[in-house]
Amino acid sequence: MSNQKDIRDFLFRGLMFESEASKFQGAGIQIGADSSYTEKQLLGEALAPFGISRRNNALEMARLYAIINCFENEIRDFIRETLTENEGVDWWNNLPRKTKEHAEKRQTTALTDSWLEGEKTDLLGFVDFGMLASIMIEKWTCFSNLIPSQHWLKQRMEELEKARNFIAHNRMLLPSEFQRIYMYVADWNRVIGL
Length: 194
Known about the structure:
The chain is an all-alpha fold.
């Protein structure tokens, strides 16, 4: 009998601590392990074998990679949501044959020839970055009220594709290029309403 009471008291104290801990955390007081410190330590250990200049360049490029990653995946969601809203859940079947075949071939390769365990079910994820603008232009009636013009779309996507390919192939960009990428992404987000 006292065993049940001890368990109940223990659980109650745990709940009370959790409640109080969140108040402390809200006030900026660290409670528990600092996961950001741990992440920094792990990153530092992984980068330790490399020279300081290479590490610094990699960390600068990591910031750009994160932005391009978010941007590219946001565009994929934008396309998916817009076409679903305008054409229904079968929108994929209405895309140009060349685009669908390209994505389906890359998906098949990923499913059969790769040991990687990442996302493999989203066909739009297998469409090349450069083809995303083509999809929006092909389906312009669905996007014309959301994007200023096809010229505006092509210009930004072509510039960002060049930068994306540099980043994806681990080439270092100059600081002025960082600013151009930030500008294009911010411009896109402002126009699209993110």
